[in-house]
Amino acid sequence: MDLIGAYRAFVHVSERGSFTLGAAAAGIPQPVASRRVAALEDHLGGRLFDRSTRRASLTPFGLDLLPSAQRLVRLADDMEHEARRARLRPMRVAVPQTCGVRELANLDADARVHDVFLDFRPAPPGQRAELVRNREVRVALVAVPESDGAWTVPLGVAGSGAAGTGAVYLESLRALRSEPAGRRRVWIQPEDDVPHIRDRVLRMRDAVGLRPSQVSVADSLVSATADVLGTHNLLLCSRAQAGELGLSWQPIGELRLARGYDLAAAVADDAARLRACAAGIARCLGAEGSAG
């Protein structure tokens, strides 16, 4: 038996003195209200209404139980109200600092179709998983090796000059002895300052004979981009990010690099709800050909 529904029918009928009016107030047909009250009387072991008159009059038993029934119905209504508020409370999500405002807004709009409202917290890769562990966010897009990623973002290098027709080989950045001041640099932005990307690039730097200073981690994406815009230096980035920054992108000849991303959540259901917006997440990350 639906006890809450039965108590609700009992309260509405008693307050209006009519099964017909009480059923309408409860949003149910009159026969349903009658059945629910009858079932409640069987459950409680006593008659709630005097059915010898046309008006639905409470019996002494019903009068004694009405205050408690009213409190129970109010509490049930409060619970439903709080549940609606909880469903509408934004889900805080840690995202890469590379995600654009428009893409995040589109992801939020996609999530609202699934009754999920998002609140974004941009953070560097090393902090996002920590934010989940500390329960400062409910979900995080964490950086993982490409092979473990639900989304992958191919990386190359981008510069302010016209793009070439092929790949850029790091070996070609070695300066001639006659041009010591002409050594070009490759900046690794903070989003790629993770072992599975950074260490591979630095090992290739050493393998092809570049100076340590020619491939290094930038303090910020803004400072790295500013340097690239005013020089012949290069930025390690995705094709989509290069387009946003107005740079010309090319793959790296010696390396196949890609960012990998997956969702981490303190509660698995939160990750599952956000994963329903896989296409929107892919757009935010600049993923190419990812099914999420």
From TrEMBL:
<keyword id="KW-0805">Transcription regulation</keyword>
<keyword id="KW-0238">DNA-binding</keyword>
<dbReference type="InterPro" id="IPR036388">
    <property type="entry name" value="WH-like_DNA-bd_sf"/>
</dbReference>
<feature type="domain" description="HTH lysR-type">
    <location>
        <begin position="1"/>
        <end position="59"/>
    </location>
</feature>
<dbReference type="GO" id="GO:0000976">
    <property type="term" value="F:transcription cis-regulatory region binding"/>
</dbReference>
<dbReference type="GO" id="GO:0003700">
    <property type="term" value="F:DNA-binding transcription factor activity"/>
</dbReference>
<dbReference type="Pfam" id="PF00126">
    <property type="entry name" value="HTH_1"/>
</dbReference>
<comment type="similarity">
    <text>Belongs to the LysR transcriptional regulatory family.</text>
</comment>
<dbReference type="InterPro" id="IPR000847">
    <property type="entry name" value="LysR_HTH_N"/>
</dbReference>
<dbReference type="InterPro" id="IPR036390">
    <property type="entry name" value="WH_DNA-bd_sf"/>
</dbReference>
<keyword id="KW-0804">Transcription</keyword>
<protein>
    <submittedName>
        <fullName>LysR family transcriptional regulator</fullName>
    </submittedName>
</protein>
